[in-house]
Write a structure and sequence with these properties.
By secondary structure, the protein is of the alpha+beta class. 27% of the residues lie in helices and 27% in strands. It has 11 helices and 15 strands. It is elongated and about 110 Å long. It starts with 5 loop residues before the first helix and ends with a helix.
């Protein structure tokens, strides 16, 4: 299903301010909140949709990419939206505390829950025959993963203390008239803990850059634009959550011999007009740098197609292979010897066809000076 425009989802203009974006999102989130629409799958989808729009438009960098390249630009950077409602709550916990006055999504304590890592995209270029017969490729790329020393905790062993502002709850209460509203703690930002001794390898970030190598099996019969998913080889998850996925987008080089039509191949072969008239045998290239001999019957016309069964592309979701179609291109000579012209002149006379500079027949094109 094609994604809708983010500005349309939040019902705002492209020049909307940060305040306009947040106000509109608040209205949408309250309207489609799961607690207000129990069991309503459509409302849940809209809840995730407007959260995705807000995540992009509230982030200046993502918004610039989206304004310039649209959804394709974001997917190229690994952004894939939210997998479920809990994913929204874990990402926007402090916002929902501002909106509704309590923490969303359940769970004990006030700490943020881990969030699955973002998906990544890798563009892989294949030779034509690699796509046809399948191949195994090792690819190399960079990603962010949880620091192996601190396990994503950002601190060395014993290098955290309970936040004194919220008492480890991750939330603080403030009075608004007769109501008490809970919001994310401004000191620990909802973590409930303060890092006192940052982890040195990751400099207290909890994440490090990783050079990753992955072996990817390309099945036979893939084509341009096919996308392969490699589970949990994307960006590292936060707080013990699983990694995102790696999506490998395939690009296939053109072949010097064939055009592809689904699982069938088309090869263009040139023959002379005499061969077309009398018939001949030609060598036709096939996949795998092989050739087969093909009988061309007498009397074939320009554009006639002959079939070599089972010499096409292996079927991606089926058994067997497609066919190889040989399309004949009949070539008319542009220069001939005197003897060749005389022989063709005799043929034309026997056929009753007028030729030469004033003729309108087939051979007039050959004899015209």
């Amino acid at each position: 299903m094609e994604k809708r425009d983010y500005y349309e989802i939040l019902d705002i203009s492209r020049g909307a301010s940060e305040g306009d974006i947040k106000r509109s999102y608040r209205q949408m989130a309250m309207k489609y909140h799961p607690d207000r629409n129990p069991g309503n799958k459509e409302a849940e989808d809209k809840f995730k949709e407007c959260a995705e729009a807000y995540e992009v438009l509230s982030d200046n960098d993502k918004r610039k990419v989206y304004d310039t390249y649209g959804h394709a630009g974001l997917s190229g950077q690994g952004f894939s939206g939210f997998s479920d409602v809990n994913d929204v709550f874990s990402s926007f916990g402090s916002i929902f505390e501002d909106f509704f006055g309590f923490q969303q999504g359940g769970g004990g304590g006030g700490k943020r829950r881990g969030r699955k890592g973002a998906d990544l995209r890798f563009d892989l270029v294949l030779e034509f025959e690699e796509a046809a017969f399948g191949v195994e490729k090792e690819i190399e790329y960079e990603r962010d993963i949880a620091c192996t020393v601190c396990k994503g905790e950002r601190a060395e062993a014993g290098g955290k203390k309970t936040c004194g502002t919220c008492g480890g709850r991750g939330q603080v209460a403030r009075s608004q008239g007769f109501f008490s509203v809970a919001t994310a703690c401004p000191t620990c930002h909802g973590e409930g803990e303060i890092v006192t001794n940052p982890c040195k390898p990751c400099k207290g970030k909890g994440r490090v850059r990783d050079q990753k190598k992955v072996s990817v099996k390309i099945p036979p019969g893939v084509d341009q634009g096919v996308r392969l998913r490699v589970s949990e080889e994307g960006q590292g998850g936060a707080g013990g959550a699983p990694n995102g996925d790696l999506y490998v987008f395939l690009q296939v080089k053109d072949s010097p011999h064939f055009e592809r039509d689904g699982s069938d191949l088309v090869h263009t072969a040139s023959i002379s007009m005499v061969q077309a008239a009398l018939g001949t045998k030609i060598a036709v290239p096939t996949l795998g740098n092989n050739t087969v001999d093909l009988e061309v019957p007498a009397g074939v016309q320009f554009g006639h197609r002959l079939t070599i069964a089972g010499e096409g592309i292996p079927k991606l979701r089926g058994i067997g292979r497609g066919d190889l179609w040989v399309e004949l291109k009949v070539e008319v000579p542009t220069k001939m010897s005197k003897e060749q012209k005389e022989l063709l002149q005799q043929f034309a006379e026997i056929s009753g066809e007028k030729v030469g500079s004033g003729g309108n027949g087939f051979f007039s094109k050959i004899f015209k000076d």
